[in-house]
Amino acid sequence: MNVEQILTERTGAVTTVTVNRPKVLNALSSQTVEALTAVLIDLQKDDEVRSVVLTGAGDRAFIAGADIGELAQLTPRTARALTDAGHRLCTQIERLGKPVIAAVNGYALGGGCEVAMACTCRIAARTARLGLPEITLGIIPGYGGTQRLPRLVGRGRAFEMLLTGAPVTAEEAWRIGLVNRVVEPEALSAEAFALAATLAAQAPEAVRRILDVVNHGLDMSMADATALEATAFGLLWATEDAREGTTAFLEKRKARFTGR
Ligand code: COA
To answer: Core-most of 42, 119, 237, 259, by most CB within 10 Å?
Structure first.
């Protein structure tokens, strides 16, 4: 499946999705945002796809933000439509029901950093730079960055990044918890794929429940969130994979999950 600005490549249960506008460092035009969202909706529906790697074309950028040429033309009405579309994209990633690994292969700025933050895990090339430079354009992040950044790195560090607009190195991003790990650029695709493949081999319903309980639970009280966890825990015992996992352990063999 190839949409002009978005490339997809399927390897077993893992699909790699590549934002393909290298001439503008994979900046997100509104058309690109719509195309990426549409591709992700298709991947959500496809039961054969168990995890996703998201990356940018070329070796310079993951995504260098929203397309500034388009931003310059915005009115309050079109700006609102643009931010709504960005939120739909990031929510689609976060609520995909399957893990999405961001392979951050270069600049992840503005909307690019926001897309990466909506992913389940982030692996960065040592050469990557991440940041929310919107303040330097006289605006604020509009794809959820004001909310996901403080949830990942804490309020103080988030304020510093949001208010200075200065990007951080991959190493600093790792130190503050913005990325899970940093690897050499030439190892990035293999590392991201390996993590995606590991997660694709787990029992899919249990994976979906973990994503759901963590993502929803963090916005709830502890009492409501643990009740959500309890419901999910109970429902998982309706799956064959839960029986298989426990039986395989007792029989001292590797579990063979089928997704049922
Ligand atoms: N929107 C539109 N075009 C962009 C872009 C964006 N967000 N980011 C980069 N580009 C384009 C540049 O205009 C340039 O196009 P050109 O070759 O036609 O002149 C091309 O991509 C290469 O970028 P360039 O700026 O020449 O590369 P650089 O190595 O000097 O700098 C960056 C790289 C990422 C530091 C710089 O491009 C940048 O600051 N981009 C904007 C980042 C940003 O503010 N994003 C948040 C938007 S809300």
So the answer is: 119
